[in-house]
């Protein structure tokens, strides 16, 4: 019981840190997107960017169903591998993204 009382503030601190980091990432993403897009394309680019929020259930609903069948650890591992593969493919084949000014 004593361990739970002592770890609860630590858990809340890390939840706050993760939430603040997520919001900072969102603000940075929007800022970079809007400053690197020409004015004539900004509306189109922002509408495609906002599709990310509207289409997120397309990925999360099957992941939840698959985690019921295969287990959460397996699904998180597969998603992590897919994310790393996407990142590496962009890093290797789209070097122009690194030079965004």
Summarize the structure in words:
Helices cover 83% and strands 0% of the residues. The chain is an all-alpha fold and 101 residues long. It folds into 2 domains: 1-54; 57-101, no CATH class. Helix 3 (56-70) packs across helix 4 (72-93). The longest helix is centred in the N-terminal third of the chain and has 34 residues, at 2-35.
Secondary structure layout plus pairing:
Blueprint: H1 2-35, H2 42-54, H3 56-70, H4 72-93
Helix pairs in contact: 3-4
TL;DR of this structure?
With 101 residues, the protein is mainly alpha-helical.
Major β-sheet annotation: none
Approximate strand percentage: under 5%
Let me know the average pLDDT: 86
> How many beta-strand segments?
0
Q: Which sequence of SSEs, written as H and E, runs from N to C?
A: HHHH
**Terminal CA distance:** 54 Å
Structural class: mainly alpha
Radius of gyration: 19 Å
Label the overall shape: extended
Q: Would you identify the regions where 5 or more consecutive residues have pLDDT less than 50?
A: none
Number of helices: 4
User: What share of residues is helical?
Assistant: over 70%
| Overall domain count | 2
